[in-house]
Amino acid sequence: MLIKRFSVYILNLSIKIVLLLISVSSITSLRSLVYLNNNGGFSSSDFGFFPLNFLKTVYKTFTHLFSLYDSTFFYLGQEYAVFPYIIDTYIYTMVVLFSAFVLTILVSFLFSYAFLFFSKRFKRLFKSLLLLIDSIPDIIIILGSQLLVIQLYQATGFKLLRLYGFGSHVYLLPIICLSFVPIVMVIKIMIKIFEEEMEEQYVEFAIAKGLSQTTVILRHVIRNVMKSLYSHIGLIYWYMLSSLFIIEFLFQMQGFTPLLYRVSDSSLTSVAIIMILIPFGLLKAASFRFYERSVLND
Amino acid sequence: MTKDNRSKWILYSIFTFLFLLFIASFFLEFGVNQSIEPGKLIYSSDGKVLRPPLPSSLEHPLGTDKNGNDLLTKLIIGFKYTFIISIVVTFIRMLIGIFFSLSVLYFLRPLKAYIESLLTPFLYVPAFILFFLLASEEEIIINKYGSHFFTFYQVLIIVLIGTPPLIELLIKEFELLLNKDYVIASRLLGASKLHISIRQIFPVFKQRFYIVFLQQTIATIILLTHLGVFQVFIGGKAKGGIIGEEDDRFLSQSGEWGGMIGQSIFDMIHFPWLLIYPACAVVGLILLLNIIIKRLDRNQR
To answer: Of B291, B293, B286, B251, which is closest to residue B82 (Cα–Cα)?
Structure first.
């Protein structure tokens, strides 16, 4: 019985993984659906609708996935070996991404915690401020911060932060830019959850019992807030990911994301897409485990 | 009562403002006879030659762009393209999204888990990467079918790349509605799928529809700015500079706002107003849409 259930589970999982691989290969082969590349060069020779060509490319991409580890690729006219390059840039990008992620959670938690102690009028002001900041697209935040640093440098000769990568690694400004918009998003979500949670009966009971508000929040409310926040993690990660591409482009960082759109090898791009989705999958699985356990505990 | 009135008043004034801007946008491009070439070189009082782009002055409140055009006029003209593109894209997306999500829920229920895992990468790969894959090489398309088709193709791609996330979202929304007691009761009484969709789902979904629509519109506007940063302009590229002196830099042909931001990111240091004013315009537009969303959301509750 157990073995049967286990084998069904494995079968289901492997079907899903194969579907995922096919899906990713078909995404990276999309170019051949509309462009025909006869001469084997970088530029295509014809435009139209070529479903057969597309299926062939999907097959080629899919089979090439498993022999990628010793090949090379071209990026900005230079040839790189796949292996050290992909790992090095991946680590750098993930460090930036995860620092921004942690920063987002910490800062937005601090703000929404402080929000609980604001006066009623200040709460309304704060909310309309959030609405205003929420309307600024990430690009404008990035460009604005660059402009600010440059103007500051021109005016005072004081170099506040390193702006551009050019080979070496920059961390501070990209991390701040990357977490700015998500912070606003998470604050908005957290405030909503906090406000709903504070009206629950157990909070009233705890306060009536004589516990201070700080204890109630830190001991009891936070757990439930975190639980609700876990369902939004996917959205936050996705948002950061799409800003990451622009940040690495505008700060000229030697990162991982150019592999997804600047390289003509579709198998490499597929691997890059899968690699960038892995942390997200882990996060989701972890949050699911967490959720399951807390439900079981209840 | 008064609060309700204020809410309505705000909504109407936003709509009127957008409508007037829209009319002005058409009027400025097609109504006014623009036979006068913008002044290319201007001599200042002490005999120096000033080249465009010029910073803001009394004559040009927002300054001029690289070709010597007034930036304010350019922004108003560009508004209609941004607006039309984002509204049309969103409308088609919603139609496709509603159709597909309902048909998945009605007819392909057993396959739903597999369809979702097939769609997952499309959800998490940023949209402009898909755009790059499908519409990056412009010359071939323009040479073969002309620039009008190219614009149409770009808009089509923007529609298609945004649909999978929308389908996912709508599937979740509709599933909630389909599991409501009154819908189940109606199905048990023998209502057809069409009847359930028209009589039970849509009246409830209508309020949500406007909010999702506006959110999608904002997402499209942001996508346009993202594409602009990577020098992809809807409607194609135009030669930049006064006399085309910069061969590798291009301007947005249509002058829609995302493109206007994108075309000036390299001039950020020398001519910051070229970037700041379009950026303010985009932020303002998104803010107005956000205010509408907030009002609708409040009315709904």
So the answer is: B286
Taking the Cβ of residue B155 and every Cβ of chain A, the question of whether any pair is shorter than 8 Å is answered with no
Distances (CA, A) of B51 to B55, B228, B248, B269, B274: 11, 25, 20, 17, 14
Contact (CB, 8 A) for B196 and B186: yes
CB atoms B275 and A241 under 8 Å: no
* Better-scored residue on pLDDT, A287 or B73: B73
Task: With CB atoms and an 8 Å threshold, state whether B134 touches A33.
Answer: yes
Among residues A279, A265, A256, the alpha carbon closest in space to that of A67 is found at: A265
Mean pLDDT of A214-220: 85
Give this prediction's pTM: 0.86
Instruction: State yes or no: pLDDT of B77 exceeds 80.
Output: yes
How many angstroms separate the CA atoms of A134 and B291, rounded?
Answer: 11
E-strand ranges in A29-117 read: 35-36, 46-47, 72-75, 78-81
CB burial string A46-68: b at 16+ within 10 A, e below: ebeebeebbeebbeebbebbeeb
ipTM, two decimals? 0.83
Yes or no, beta carbons of A280 and B127 under 8 Å apart = no
Interface of A with B in 3-62 (CB under 8 A): 15-16, 19-20, 22-24, 27-28, 30-31, 33-35, 43-47
Cis peptide, bond prior to residue B52, ω within 30 of zero: no
Q: Cβ contacts (< 8 Å) between A251 and chain B: which residues?
A: none
In order of A97, A103, A115, the CA distances from A108 in angstroms are 16, 8, 10
Q: At B117, which amino acid appears?
A: S
Q: Which has more confidence, A44 or B228?
A: B228
Other C-beta atoms lying within 10 Å of the C-beta of residue B242: 15
Residue B145 contacts residue B127 (beta carbons within 8 Å): no
Residues 6+ apart with CB under 8 A from B253: B147, B233, B235, B236, B237, B238
Task: Give B 203-232 residues with CB within 8 A of chain A.
Answer: 221-222, 225-226, 229-230
Q: Are A267 and A64 in contact, with CB atoms under 8 Å apart?
A: yes
Count how many Cα atoms sit within 13 Å of the Cα of residue A78 in the half-sphere of its side chain.
5
